[in-house]
Here is the input.
Amino acid sequence: MENSVVDFPTWIFPLDTFKALPSFGSKEDNKTELIYRQSCAHMINYAGCRLKLTQLVSNTAIVFMHRFYMFQQMELFSPKDMAPVFLFLATKIEEQLRYPKQILLAFNIIKAPIETVPVKEIEENEKKLFINEKVLVQTLGFEFMINHPHIFIVKAMDVLKLQKEICQTAYFFASCSLHLTYFCVQLKSSYIAAICIKLACMWSKRDVLCFGSK
Here is the structure.
């Protein structure tokens, strides 16, 4: 889904929020929750690759995951159960739809690469997916529009006259930020893009200013 380059602050949470997330009530358990989220992001990305989806779809699914767990508990909604739901909704939003059965089979390969899933189990999992999708949609408040940092990186490439290699590295860092951090629910996408561009320039031992001055 193509959107104009606008930053949406609706889903940006104060840092204090992360000291007592719904799944883990203390600051000490914050790292534990992040590990679970990283694992969920990895499953989404792996399944997305198997389904030959674009990185955009996987990125959107991962953002849905981060937003969802700002309100819901992992004890009630296991990341293993919800990961297919996040990806299923993302395929709809980004107009690369896959059938629920296809998505569930892709995730099943992660859980049990050799085993064949019984038809009855697939049917039961499909019903569960649709039920959880309703919870996800309600939790998100029917707000599905996401402008990823990648959009701002591409725009900055033209404005700052960045080298293609710098842009590609920043693009990669932006995807990594979704997998490894809470950034997408802590910072505006434009800020994340700026951080990724700065890191990419540092990585290549170049200064951002030297590009803008050309």
In short: Residues 15-140 form a domain with the Cyclin A; domain 1 fold (CATH 1.10.472.10). The radius of gyration is 18 Å. The chain has two domains: 15-140, 149-204.
